[in-house]
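F.,

This is the one I mentioned.
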């Protein structure tokens, strides 16, 4: 499910991120976004895997890895929410 959600959301993310840029900068911005996503995905796999390996016997490593992954997901959702609110507020002020 995670892969399906990511695959469906990335095109929208790219469109939203580069939509306000001049045409000559859109390719660079799209490449930076894609690179950031790839680096984040690599770290997102490596960190929980290392936590699973060092987390202790039995299911303790899995528990630790999923708690950390959930914490990062919550942090990302919070930052995205704050960023989107700031942008919407800025656009509302610019229209007035």
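My design for it:
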């Amino acid at each position: 499910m995670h892969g399906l959600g990511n695959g469906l959301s990335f095109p929208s993310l790219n469109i939203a991120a580069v939509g306000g840029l001049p045409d000559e900068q859109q390719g660079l911005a799209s490449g930076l976004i894609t690179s950031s996503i790839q680096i984040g995905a690599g770290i997102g796999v490596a960190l929980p895997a290392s936590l699973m390996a060092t987390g202790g016997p039995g299911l303790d490593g899995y528990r630790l890895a999923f708690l950390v992954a959930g914490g990062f997901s919550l942090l990302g959702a919070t930052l995205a929410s704050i960023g989107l609110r700031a942008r919407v507020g800025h656009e509302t002020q610019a229209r007035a």
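The helical segments are 2-18, 23-54, 60-95.

Talk soon.
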